[in-house]
Amino acid sequence: MVTTGEQAQDRDPEPDALSPTSAVTGLPQKRFYRQRAHSNPIADHSFDYPARPEDVDWRKLYPSIQPGQQVRFADIGCGYGGFLVTLGEMFPEKLSIGMEIRVKVSDYVVDRIAALRRKSEATGAGAYQNIACLRTNAMKYLPNYFAKGQLEKMFFLYPDPHFKRAKHKWRIINQALLSEYAYVLRKGGLVYTMTDVEDLHKWIVAHMEEHPLYERLTEAEAEADHITPKLYQSSEEGAKVVRNKGDHFLAIFRRL
Amino acid sequence: MATIFFTEPELVVGHGRRVLFVNPEDMQIFKEIELPPDLGLKTQAPSSTIEQGSGSCPAGKEQQLAAGGAKQPEATASGSAATKVEAPISVQNVAYSPDGQLLAVTTSGGQKALLLYRSWPENARLLSSRPLARAASALRFCSDSSSVLVTDKTGDCYQYDCVELEATPRLLLGHLSVVYDILWSEDQQHIITCDRDDKIRVTNYPATFDIHSYCLGHREFVSGLALLTDQHIASASGDKTLRVWNYIQGKELLLHELPAPAVRLLVRQLEPEKVFQAAVLFYGNVDALGLYRLERSPDESWSVTATQLVRAEAGSWSISNFTLTADRIYITGAENERLSLRVYDIATGQRTTSGVPEGWVKMVLDGLGASEEDAPPFVPEDLSVWFKKRFDNVSDYLERKKRRIEEQQQQKCG
């Protein structure tokens, strides 16, 4: 941290170093929002969560939301929001929500979306009105936000692997939670999962296939999905993996 | 934990290693149970695998998949625990099967188990003793008495078969916090559970992977549930409300403000499907118990009338549980770390001795071994931990961020 004393002398050289917003892109810089990757999803946190879906003020998140319009896509554990932004661009008619438990990271996404909206407004395009980010614990509060069968697509991209066996209950994909996801997903809705940890991938596939309300898409079906190539490209975590030449494991499931 | 409930004509009280079945009207003890010092738990505790009915997932599969490969499942822990020094076993919860033939007892302490007794025609014969993965939080038989549900502190709900006593328990559903109460609809189509995260969940049965609805609206833990009709339930919560729901639709029909957070709910039917008496135990309130009359009008709407507050001298002793008969309220608690039992009159809300046979309370306490010199101290569960701790990890961050932005702007201007 730079102290005020230093600041007084240090007039210029690197204005960027102190600013959470990049002078070049006009977007917030990630390094001011870094946070460790793990969070205990079972502990108490100070979340303001709605008691019921009817109580959510969606206009606060989507200022231009139309009457009757509902969130259809949810990126669970959206991280820095790279894929959420892509989703917003690919599906301008759909409202997408990113859910992230970490304070700084979700704040980054909120700031990033605000900056993207400002930039887009300046050019007259008015884009990015269809994406928003919530800081919440998706493992606990999905039914507080979404009615039964409301969602069309859910994304679980590079979830925390929680390697230790004792922490498997913290995994975002577990048997008990799959029933909750099935509750908020409409019939025919899709669940996209992506990870660079092979054991976790096997865990996800085993649990999803075992659950009577899901079936895995065939490889051909998964390939044919327009979102598939974007899943490999657009998440920041994904980009990192590509540089590391790691393997990606994609699996898509249909809600029966 | 002291458990107490009334089922005509028996008042059942469990404490320490004993359960007593007494007549509240006279000095008759119908029967008693004393837990053996060693429950002889041989079989393994249930695995953490939800069975989906197809039987396609043996527990071993999960172990293979476990990243990092834990060497031994935790199930063996309960077996080896017997050799270690352990906390004494005590009765935690007791329930009669609806047909009155079976009795289920959960234990806490060193040996956590579900014990099943045949209560009729025999005088409480132990049928089976099955280990529990964790301490139980609630217990409920299904209406045809063929199985019993046990929920635990981590939010899991297991079904134990009462016919095939050796059958592996099935993990039916999971919450992410303690499940405080569980109901099973009369037609056995729905299992209704409530948890510390303000939720009431309605799960289809036998397809328990399919959630039917949620009854949402409470703003604190939901401590108690009661079935009113084939569509309606009552709930009590730490948010100081008593509510009535159509659980099929997940719709709130009535909300009544209570003087204090509710930690236990008991409902008695006064007129079938129509009039009910609800009793609520409060947290940290001088008037420790509230009685309410719930009435259903022909048009499906419900009304509530507060009928009595019971000044159970809360504060002077530590109340743990209660039950109702037609005219009296029996409250258990701890006085100087000893079990105590007090009787109150429903009509007046006052402590009473009328109708209570002389020496009856002493008989019950003695029968439970509560007055023995070497009885372990009785300290009721600390319910303050039920409330969510609100620790703020946001405003500090936002404050620092604001300061950083201000500093940056100052710098620009300077």
Automatic annotation (TrEMBL), chain A:
Organism encoding this protein: Drosophila rhopaloa
Gene this chain is encoded by: LOC108047021
Family the UniProt entry places it in: Belongs to the class I-like SAM-binding methyltransferase superfamily. TrmB family.
Pfam families cross-referenced by the UniProt entry: Methyltransf_4
UniProt cross-references to SUPFAM superfamilies, sorted A to Z: S-adenosyl-L-methionine-dependent methyltransferases (SSF53335)
Pathway per the UniProt entry: tRNA modification; N(7)-methylguanine-tRNA biosynthesis
Principal subcellular localization: nucleus
Catalytic site: D160
GO molecular function, one term: tRNA (guanine(46)-N7)-methyltransferase activity
Binding site for S-adenosyl-L-methionine: G77, E100, I101, N137, A138, L157, S235, E236, E237
Catalyzed reactions: guanosine(46) in tRNA + S-adenosyl-L-methionine = N(7)-methylguanosine(46) in tRNA + S-adenosyl-L-homocysteine
Name of the featured protein: tRNA (guanine-N(7)-)-methyltransferase
HAMAP family membership: tRNA_methyltr_TrmB_euk
Role this protein plays: Catalyzes the formation of N(7)-methylguanine at position 46 (m7G46) in tRNA.
GO CC aspect terms: nucleus; tRNA (m7G46) methyltransferase complex
Swiss-Prot/TrEMBL keywords: Methyltransferase, Nucleus, RNA-binding, S-adenosyl-L-methionine, Transferase, tRNA processing, tRNA-binding
EC assignment: 2.1.1.33
Subcellular location: Nucleus
Positions of the UniProt region annotated as Disordered: 1-23
Automatic annotation (TrEMBL), chain B:
Cellular component annotations (GO), alphabetically ordered: cytosol; nucleus; tRNA methyltransferase complex
Pathway note: tRNA modification; N(7)-methylguanine-tRNA biosynthesis
Compartments it resides in: Cytoplasm; Nucleus
UniProt KW keywords: Cytoplasm, Developmental protein, Differentiation, Nucleus, Oogenesis, Repeat, Spermatogenesis, tRNA processing, WD repeat
Keyword Repeat set for record: yes
WD repeat residues: 215-255
Pfam families, sorted: WD40
Lineage of origin: Eukaryota, Metazoa, Ecdysozoa, Arthropoda, Hexapoda
Compositionally biased tracts (Polar residues): 44-55
Protein family according to the UniProt entry: Belongs to the WD repeat TRM82 family.
Name listed for the protein in its UniProt record: tRNA (Guanine-N(7)-)-methyltransferase non-catalytic subunit wuho
Coiled coil segments of this chain: none
